[in-house]
Amino acid sequence: MLDDLRVRALRGATTLERDDREHLLERTGELIQTVFERNGLREEDLISLVFTATDDISSAFPAEAARIAGITHVPLLCARELDIDGGVPRCIRVLVHAYTDRAVTELRHPYLHAARQLRTDLPE
After folding, report:
1. CA dist., res. 14 & res. 116, Å (int)
2. The CATH number of the domain where 93 resides is what?
């Protein structure tokens, strides 16, 4: 029901084994698909997606993977992640704003590959 919908934010991250365009698109596509599947989202539910990438990624924009996945009518933004000593290398993060009827405690924030270490406290 429309009255039950709330704006929620979802987070997720993945890592690359190498800075290669095809690999970036594959891993970012996997991240987007996992966010959608775990949270029952469709493009119509989306408000915006914000991607960040660490400084060691320059082969492609992560948002390109969203366009390839068919997300064509939603604002996308890419930015640089802070360069923190000891941070996770070759890491892409996403912040998804969407309408959902799920409670905050029901949301699933996927952290894939080596990014899992960023949020070991979250349920899969």
Report:
1. 8
2. 3.30.1330.40
